[in-house]
Amino acid sequence: MVVDYWSVERYRFGLVIGCGALVAWFTPYPLVIMLLVLLGYIGWMLQKLYQLQRWLTNGQKPEEMPDSDGAWEQIAYLFHKSQQKSAERKRKQQELLTRFDNVLSALPDAAVLLDADNHIQWANKSAAKLLGVQDAADRGKRIDTLLRNPDLHKLLEENSERKVTFPSPRNSNLTLRARLLPLQGGSRVLSVRDISEGVQLQKTRKAFIANASHELRTPLTVLTGYIELFEQDPELPEYLKAPLQQSQEQAARMQQIISDMLALSRLESQETTPLMGNRVDVPAMLESSIKAISDTLASDTHLLETQIEPDLCVCGSEKDINSVITNLLANAVKHTPVGTTIRIHWESTDDGQACLSIIDNGPGIPEKHLPHLTERFYRVDEGRSRASGGTGLGLAIVKHVMQWHNGKLTIDSKPGHTEFKACFPAKRVLD
């Protein structure tokens, strides 16, 4: 049942006024009596207000709640109910925070909460293990004074989400990868993962590929030599000529795969960016490669159009840049149908870069394949790629050469227009 608390107050006030008026009627000083009655009522109200104020300031303990009725009872009850809800909400929030803290503390990845000025606000247990950052001892300190790594400092200054790799300050045998995750209010979480196992596996894989390629090269050379001797034998039976021809083609393809694997292994093992290197006459290199491919792969099948800045040269590795040119040109010819027009552009951009663009008007590459084209042995069309003699390593080599020269390979494709664009940074461009 809903209680009308204000009706109680009105009843009480009316009773006080009525009783005061009755008493005043029988006395010679009615106004004085009424004034005293009203002052008494106001005093009683102030006493209730004082009790409520004391109860609120003393923590709103249920056993000390003022004993009253009417509006004062409702006010005290509402304050008490609000306190209970607030306490329950705080308890649930604390439970959620405790649970969240336990989850983050159990994660193998280090997590450090930073404010906008890189002061440590919180850190989990893995941060102590991987970074040496203690939650209690280091809270409030700047993280860049505890972790003295230039790459990490640059990441904190840039405030970007890119990843950086650096050795653990606690154990130089551990390799860590860090990234910043932005939060509201300018705060950020520095997330650090131990990638030592992956790095070791990568090194093992690279060593295996390099060693296997070297070991396969010698026996394959011997087999190729014997196949050539058999082919030159005038007494070779007719029925063996086709099998030997196929064997020769497959041996040549295998030699190309091994050569590409060795080139890729060499590029991957170069952990640092090379010096500026020698002056590479890219226009002359392009002219030579275009003539060679016009006389062989593209002979009577493709139309090649060129737009080359004659004096635009770059600094770098001549052998590696030549592999970029030959791989991109060969891919454009091998993976487009007869009659395709291929445009080769070598020109400078407005921001000073030097870009090689190989553009064809072929059928295009489905969008789902574009992110994977630079992966090793990835093929859009398995059968057609093998038939064309491709190794599946050309674009992987191109990507690594461009990265090693601080450049970038971009691929854009839609039906009727496919463009492979390799750009060298302005600092490598020579006038």
UniProtKB/TrEMBL annotation:
Listed EC numbers = 2.7.13.3
Question: Which biological process annotations from GO are given for this protein?
Answer: cellular response to phosphate starvation; phosphate ion transport; regulation of DNA-templated transcription
**What range(s) does the Histidine kinase domain occupy?**
211-428
Subcellular location(s): the record lists: Cell membrane
Keyword Phosphoprotein set for record: yes
Work out whether the entry's keyword set contains NADP: no
| Gene3D superfamilies with a match to the protein in the record | 1.10.287.130, Histidine kinase-like ATPase, C-terminal domain, PAS domain
Name where it mostly resides.
membrane
Q: What function is annotated for this protein?
A: Member of the two-component regulatory system PhoR/PhoB involved in the phosphate regulon genes expression. PhoR may function as a membrane-associated protein kinase that phosphorylates PhoB in response to environmental signals.
Q: This protein is called what?
A: Phosphate regulon sensor protein PhoR
- What gene codes for this chain? phoR
